[in-house]
């Protein structure tokens, strides 16, 4: 498993580029088809698994105890909102107040 993990980590960008190219080629060759819809979720799950394979399990457990992380995962905090309110203010208070 360690050899496979190391190999996947070394070739991660190449694998993603190849997967993107193959997906674009498949979409071009089979336009307006829904036969491959079932393959999307497993493919995304595999890519996420490879990406986060080296994530420390102890930190992952602690992340689920933090309310802010859970709000972000649940979609209650949008990425656009974080982009607009967080970076402009280094002091931790939102630059735009919510009412």
Automatic annotation (TrEMBL):
Membrane spanning residue stretches: 12-32, 38-56
Keywords assigned: Membrane, Transmembrane, Transmembrane helix
Keyword Transmembrane: yes
The protein's name: Uncharacterized protein
Species this chain originates from: Achromobacter mucicolens
């Amino acid at each position: 498993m360690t050899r496979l993990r190391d190999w996947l980590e070394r070739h991660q960008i190449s694998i993603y580029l190849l997967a993107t190219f193959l997906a674009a080629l498949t979409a071009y060759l089979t336009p307006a088809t829904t036969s491959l819809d079932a393959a999307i979720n497993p493919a995304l799950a595999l890519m996420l698994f490879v990406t986060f394979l080296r994530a420390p399990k102890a930190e992952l457990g602690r992340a689920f105890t933090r309310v802010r992380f859970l709000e972000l995962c649940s979609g209650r905090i949008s990425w656009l909102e974080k982009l607009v309110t967080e970076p402009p203010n280094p002091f931790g208070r939102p630059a735009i107040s919510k009412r």
